[in-house]
Amino acid sequence: MLDAFTIATKGGIVLWSKPDSNFTHKNEANDPVNDLIKTVLIQNARTGDQSQRSFTTEYHSVQWTFANDLGLIFVAAYQKILQLTYITELLQKVKKRFVELFSDRLKNAIYQKKDSEEDQVFEEFNFTDSFASILRAVEKKDELSRQDRRNQPRRFEDTNKYQQTMEGSKKEMEALAVDETMSMMMLNSGGRRKGKPMRTWADKKGKKGSGNDSETSGKKGKKGGKASKEMRTWDGGKITAERMRALDFSADKSDGTDTNEEQSLQSKETARRWVEEESMGKLTNDGGYEVANYDSNDEIVDDDEDEDGNLSKISKPTGLFTTFIQTITTGKVLTEADLVGPISKMREHLVQKNVASDIASEICQSVQHDMIGQRITGFQTIKSQIRQSMNRVLTRILTPQTSTDILRGIMSAKSQGKPYSIVFVGVNGVGKSTNLSKVCFWLLQNRLRVLVAACDTFRSGAVEQLRVHVRNLHLLSDDPRKKMVDLFERGYGKDSAAIAKDAIQYATTNDYDVVLIDTAGRMQDNEPLMRALAKLVSTNNPDKIVFVGEALVGNEAVDQLTKFNKALREFTNAQSSRHIDGMILTKFDTIDDKVGAALSMTYITGQPILFVGTGQTYTDLKTMRVSNIVSALLRN
Amino acid sequence: MFVSGNLMSYAALLYLAFGIVAAVVLKYFVLSETIRKPKKNTILILGTTKSGKTTLWAYFRYHRLIPTQTSMEKNEVEKPIHCKEKSVVLHLMDIPGHPKLRNEFHDYTPITKGIIFMVNSSTLKSDIQEVGENLYDVLADKHVQKLEIPILVACHKQDLKGSLDRSDVENILAQEIDKLRSTRQSSLQKHDNDHGNNNGDGDDDADETTEFLGFENKKFSFEDLVNHVTFVESGTRYKNEDFGGFSDINEWVVELFD
């Protein structure tokens, strides 16, 4: 069923994994976890549905979740053909469990930035048993729910709601009272029950939004933290001391006590409540329990309580001062509620910078996901923190992941004895021919022989335009007597794919280094023309397909690029499927700091911007500096 | 304002006192940050993905081999090590090798004492272009040049079949850098926004030096660099020595502080 489950730090250290990965050189080519990280998490690539958080490789479906506060990632991979519905739940539960068990150790051994002693010990994370029991429970639950759906609606007595009614809780009380240990506890915590019978849990749950419990991974403080440990197995109606021990959260114990089919929800809910009260009054009640184990856990939970407490205290005016101090000293853990406002402002800001609005939303969403659970410390404001994260994410998106060194590519093509071909594609009037000649000029400066192929056989004057450029460039080249640049043309109305093929052939025989192929501008929705382009690409298999786009473009960029990419992918044959390899951003001098198009384009294609066109002359071609774009995007 | 009642004035005083304390604390943080940083004995572990950076980092820290996967974030630790005479605190930093992340190292080169560049010797032949570009970026970094930061190229994964030995790796890399230095020199200018608020940081942004690596009209060789470049072999199951397959790397690090 489940092929692999990995728990690792964001730094790449695997803490626990199934199947057990000893230190061996495993088959790296087909490792779904690495694929996920490389293609999705680092590149912020679009994964269809962002909220779904799933990803499919060749053989596997992969789902993941983060524990941002501890910098952990949890990844589950399973066979692509299977439809496993419980993976999301499994991830959440495993996360919660793992964080509970090991958060202390993680803080000490993994995240401490300074090691005092000579050797920091890296202990194994004994999680195998816990994982097995969680998996079993989740699978069982999934099975049961499927059966339920098949059978009939469940009875009211089976629902959670029932536990919150007076009647329901009374019944639980009776069940509890039979047991000796439990009755002891009832005496101790009686006060609370009298004051607010059974309302506390429900209230708390309501306030905190129990639906989101899983999101924040054990950050919910004492109550939420303990209460949500549903993976534990519960059976029978009564709580015995033995079973109480099973509730123990100590690291050395595994939970696989027994997995009885009929899980009595009533006793589960009740016991839950008792455990919770127990830990609340631990000063008085601890006696009967394994104190040591509880202690270690309580510490963790208490930490969390502080952070959680901040949030609730903010709403009360009385605690403002203490909150302020706490925020500064211990830091404040960011929740979704804190981020929504500032993030949407940031989104607006990006849109103002001419980033396509869908893309601004997606990027903001991913920044938000990254930040939930993070802690802001000292005098940092949420806004500055968002700017920081945004800066990091934008840099990541804009940084090329493939080589942008075209000259190096030409060099290797040369060593293979064939010309390096670049196809310029784009919609009408964006400056394909102009920028082609600028690129040509640069190549000539590097003493490369260039052949320009006029494959725009559609628009009148296109060939003549290129001829003028070539004549100019020829005169500008180092040695006008030597033919460094030439035009290859076959007039109008011909098949452009054939012309390009001839041009490459001609270049090979006449020892040209580079072939620049100019194509007709076409709207992305014009299918016959898009097919013609795909044909040109598939028959000639050029080294680079360069998309020429205006920097002025806004939301349209998304549509243009996705459709060009789609056409290239679908209309070429499957084995040699191509996509856009890079972009040239033209008219870059006209946009001031509204550089959003650069971001939109790199985000959609995942390919680098090779050049930017910045003016009217041949020398006005530059490469893009990522840090400039990022700072322009974030500038107010 | 103190007229408005005992409680108010008390609160006001508290806030005032707190403000002062906060200011002092802040100042301390800012100062200590700027003073402390350059003193760090920072060693960067660089290289492309799957070259063994995190494994090395973890080995330095925990003295054992730990399974790893592709890193999404850098790892760093300050760890005391024993050199011959003194004990120094090593600041060890492992920068992810993914193309989108590996350029982060530019931020740390001003405080770097040494760079360990990991090479996967078993796949170098097919990855040469990527590895070469990465190494070129490291060598051409402004601070690497200016501070003459010593570089150790670790030919890692020697235990795998078909891995190249030290001299092969050196030759192949030198050839690649030879090509790259000519193409990089003739690449186009970077675009600078001359509009907007130009607060004079235009030049600071440039990570890459314009210096030509090595000598012109001579084939590139690592000996021509201002940096001291050393090549060693390593591997996780390579030699049964006291420091595993990393003993040569460890030696280099220890010597760096002598």
Automatic annotation (TrEMBL), chain A:
Taxonomy, superkingdom: Eukaryota
Q: Which GO BP terms, alphabetically?
A: intracellular protein transport; SRP-dependent cotranslational protein targeting to membrane
Q: Where is the SRP54-type proteins GTP-binding domain?
A: 608-621
The record's section on Pfam families has:
SRP-alpha_N, SRP54, SRP54_N
UniProt-annotated stretches for the region Disordered: 142-171, 187-234, 249-294
The cellular component terms of Gene Ontology attached to this UniProt record, alphabetical and capped at eight, are: signal recognition particle receptor complex
- Tell me where it resides: Endoplasmic reticulum membrane
Name the residue ranges with Basic and acidic residues bias: 142-160, 269-280
**Per its UniProt record, what Gene3D superfamilies does this chain match?**
3.30.450.60, P-loop containing nucleotide triphosphate hydrolases, Signal recognition particle SRP54, nucleotide-binding domain
Keywords, A to Z, come to: Endoplasmic reticulum, GTP-binding, Membrane, Nucleotide-binding, Receptor
Database matches in InterPro entries = AAA+_ATPase (IPR003593), Longin-like_dom_sf (IPR011012), P-loop_NTPase (IPR027417), Sig_recog_particle_rcpt_asu_N (IPR007222), Signal_recog_particl_SRP54_hlx (IPR013822), SRP/SRP_N (IPR036225), SRP54_GTPase_dom (IPR000897), SRP54_N_sf (IPR042101)
GO-annotated molecular function: GTP binding; GTPase activity; signal recognition particle binding
Topology in membrane: Peripheral membrane protein
For this chain, the family text in UniProt reads: Belongs to the GTP-binding SRP family.
Task: Fetch the PANTHER family from UniProt.
Answer: SIGNAL RECOGNITION PARTICLE RECEPTOR SUBUNIT ALPHA
**In its UniProt entry, what is this protein called?**
SRP54-type proteins GTP-binding domain-containing protein
- Which species is this record about? Mycoemilia scoparia
Automatic annotation (TrEMBL), chain B:
What is a single molecular function from GO for this protein? Answer: GTPase activity
Q: What is its main location?
A: endoplasmic reticulum
Claim: GTP-binding is one of the keywords in the record:
yes
Looking up InterPro entries in the UniProt record yields:
P-loop_NTPase, Small_GTP-bd, Small_GTPase_ARF, SRP_receptor_beta_su
Q: Which UniProt keywords apply?
A: Endoplasmic reticulum, GTP-binding, Membrane, Nucleotide-binding, Receptor, Transmembrane, Transmembrane helix
Q: Would you kindly state one Gene Ontology biological process term found in this protein's UniProt entry?
A: Golgi to plasma membrane protein transport
Recorded hits in SMART domains, A to Z, give:
ARF
Q: What top-level branch of life does the organism fall under?
A: Eukaryota
Give the span(s) annotated as Disordered: 183-208
Of the GO CC terms on this record, one is: Golgi apparatus
Q: Where in the cell is it found?
A: Endoplasmic reticulum membrane
Membrane-crossing residue ranges in chain numbering: 12-30
Topology versus the membrane: Single-pass membrane protein
Which NCBIfam families does the UniProt record give? small_GTP
**What PANTHER family does the entry give?**
ADP-RIBOSYLATION FACTOR-RELATED PROTEIN 1
Q: Which family does it belong to?
A: Belongs to the SRP receptor beta subunit family.
**Designated name of the protein:** Signal recognition particle receptor subunit beta
Species, as recorded: Mycoemilia scoparia
